[in-house]
Design brief:
This protein is about 40% helix and about 20% strand. With about 260 residues, it is of the alpha/beta class. It starts with a strand and ends with a helix.
């Protein structure tokens, strides 16, 4: 079997190292490789899937919109999130999935707080949409962003009941989910948003803990980061690709090693 990651750039991606470690651990005859694909050449990558050259692929920027439009069948959760980042090819038919959703679920489970704990979601882009779809029905949700109208539209598009609060307003006792880029380059989230949280899931990650993660750790607030989400995404994609239960610890170790 042959799989790849389609995007531009892709050479920074950990996906090949993670999936190839999983294939080796289970003795699966498969390979996962880089498929550099410029913004105007997605059709070339699509042909590789339809003609059987590749059995599936992970999709990254700038092609998530192209992938959503190209697939023949869309998993209901991906349809709800309006985004596809994983494609399975069978006999020329492309089926699209969104493993960001499982990645969010996996990461929030690492925090260890009870199901139904209120959520304060920061952001209103594609990652925020995946977070909303992954949140169990009935969970109290609040969305915050610099444009409150965009936050309200996201809730409406995903069909969830959510309150909208001004940027920087905390929700005491909530799991804060940072689905914004803030933290990637040393930026800080509003202090009270973190200090009043019951837990923190910061989707960003880098060579050092983000300021929000460092604050949570210092206060004893349980947290998860973008690497946890990456592992969860990989587990979901691996099982779609192979039909086998993923060796989660192997994938986690490969991600941590590749990240160093």
């Amino acid at each position: 079997m042959r799989f790849g990651i389609i995007g531009d750039p892709v050479e920074h991606s950990m996906s090949p190292a993670i999936h190839n470690a999983g294939f080796a651990a289970l003795g699966i005859d498969a390979v996962f490789e880089f498929v550099p694909t410029p913004v105007d050449r997605f059709a070339d990558a699509e042909r590789l899937l339809r003609d059987g050259t590749f059995d599936g692929a992970s999709i990254t920027m700038p092609h998530k919109g192209n992938a959503f439009a190209a697939v023949d069948v869309i998993d209901p959760l991906a349809e709800r999130a309006r985004a596809v980042n994983t494609i399975i090819a069978r006999d020329g038919v492309l089926t699209g999935y969104n493993t960001d959703i499982e990645g969010v679920r996996f990461a929030t489970e690492q925090i260890g707080l009870p199901t139904g704990t209120p959520v304060l979601l920061l952001g209103y882009g594609g990652a925020a949409a995946a977070a909303l779809v992954s949140t169990p029905r009935g969970t109290p949700i609040t969305i915050s962003g610099r444009r409150t109208g965009a936050a309200a539209r996201l809730a409406n598009e995903i069909d969830v009941q959510a309150a909208v609060v001004a940027w920087g307003e905390p929700v005491a006792g909530a799991i804060v989910v940072n689905a914004t880029p803030l933290g990637m380059h040393g930026e800080s989230l509003p202090e009270a948003v973190v200090t009043e949280a019951a837990g923190l899931f910061d989707m960003t990650y880098g060579d050092a803990p983000t300021d929000a993660i460092a604050t949570a750790a210092a206060l004893g607030i349980p947290y998860a980061d973008g690497l946890d989400m990456l592992v969860g995404q990989a587990v979901s994609a691996f099982e779609l690709f192979t039909g086998r239960a993923a060796p989660t610890n192997v994938l986690r170790t490969a991600a941590r090693i590749r990240h160093r």
